[in-house]
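re: ur question from yesterday

yeah so i grabbed the chain u mentioned. its 183 aa long if i counted rite. heres the sequnce exactly as i have it in my notes:
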Amino acid sequence: MKPLMILPIVMAGLTLSTMAVLAQAPSGAVFTTAWDGTQVNANQFEYGWDVFLDGGPGPDAPADAAALPAGDYVFQVTDPAAKTLLSTDPPECRTFHVDEAGLIAGVGDPDGCGHATAFDVDHGAVTVQLWPFDETPNPGYVYEVWVTPVEQFDPGGGGDFGFARSASKTDTFRVLYAQGSPD
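ran it thru and got these structure tokens back, copy pasting raw so excuse formatting
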């Protein structure tokens, strides 16, 4: 009789282990960059519309260095404490695809709401504009971009606006004039 009581406990443990694996962040990294990818992991921009997302890596590095695994991803922009969602469009407008080479290959564009794109100079990969997003409440003008696999995004769940920190890659950047010129 005791072995039968152990089975539910073992099954529950396996379920929790599987859930922990599913919630792990993807390997690789994401980087903020200029529209043409010339600045790898750029962290300071003059205007909000200057900030683009690149899967990396920098010039002279192999295309798959620090790359995200192939698949579909969604991004958001928040303040660095993740207390305020700054992305102003729906999550389905903030999706992109990473190909088998580890390069961003395109953006989702349901109903024409996908983000602007360009191409990086080193690998010809797509760069994705993070704009539109609101001004950060952070006094140092700091923002954070989050990237998570689409299948791990849970808009109705907890986490940070549907993004679980444990399933996301992030990069911090600064924008001097989020909504345009101070003039």
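noticed a couple things. Residues 2-22 form the longest helix (21 residues). also The chain has one domain: 27-177.
anyway ttyl
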